[in-house]
Fold this protein.
Amino acid sequence: MIELRPFEKLGGADHGWLKAKHHFSFGSHYDPNNMGHGSLRVWNDDEIAPNSGFPAHPHANMEIITYVREGAITHQDSLGNEGRTEAGDVQVMSAGSGVRHSEYNLEPTRTKIFQIWIEPTTQGGAPTWGAKPFPKSDRSGKFVTIASGFAADNDALPIRADARVLATTLKAGESAEYTSDKARNLYLVPAVGSVEVNGVFVNARDGAAISNEARLTITALEDSELVLVDAA
């Protein structure tokens, strides 16, 4: 089953410096019937104005993945970590027992990100942060795992969750396949472009909540960049 979540129907907020769309309940956008998809709890589509961002704030017991679609995000946290993550690259924070962090767009142009939260398999533990480049050329035409809770995905950034986050870029007319257990919860969002997923059309920034599907065939209708979460 594939349930389409059109971008224009998503809840959201406009704070001036931040334009956000929420695929699931988040903040003031509360829908008790849309609290997540399996252990995937948050998927926010954020646009951050130049020289602005999220000041220091706390998190605990959540795996937070930031996929940068355009621009760059600069991270600082209470562990002493600092880093700048550019478009196409990924950062991961395991909040664990608790951490404070800030995320700023220090660039002269707006930054666009997907912020993805996945519930961890265990509570507590020492918080961690990491970032890694994932060149788009390396994931052209195929899914590459960029964050994972599975030891076999040793090239991905580690998370403490029964989940993996994948990305691919497809040229118009190109297809990619993904197989998973039918019991898994999959969520697919094109960062750019439009695709057909098992016969369902998904446009840029739409969400596709997928369940009870053992195989996905994704065909690009135009040049596309996709992010997929496979969660318990």
Observations:
- The first strand starts at residue 2 and ends at 5.
- The domain at 2-231 is CATH 2.60.120.10 (Jelly Rolls).
- The chain has a mean pLDDT of 97.
